[in-house]
Here is the input.
Amino acid sequence: MILTGPEITAAAHDGRLTINPFEPDQVNPNSYNVRLGPTLLTYTAPVIDAHHPNPTTAVEIGPGGYVLQPGELYLGHTLEQVGSDTFVPLLFGRSSVGRLGLFVEITAPIGDIGFHGQWTLMLSPIRPLRVYAGMKIGQVMFFVSIGDIDLYRGKYQAATGPQPSRYWRDAARAVAS
Here is the structure.
């Protein structure tokens, strides 16, 4: 079952889910709009290596926006901290942003129960596109879980700002075992 807009509002007020800051005008019939945070990361190495940390460079989106370029992966983040110890959150791009040719959440829309923080967004434009900090970029839906809950305790917990991949930590553990 998916939470309706009024239930998202009720759950945000009674603590079953966290949306901070919470803005009532961002509640939809069955989702909550999240906004683009002010920082973007890009990888700087010519080859990204899954088994090693990869260098990044940060860009702050100024008042005039920032032009995303095709063929580049940008790691952005939600302005809001979102999470729940009760519900399963899923984040998708907004259709109006998709109609501008921007892929917002390419491969990882599902959040873990127990994660609380800003979500890293994987942004990839089809053509040059100017984006702005604070623009509504995605929407989070919350689903009811069935069964025992094992809360998330992973490597991205309490994230602030965009987070580069930490896949290399998993790869190093696999090689060591």
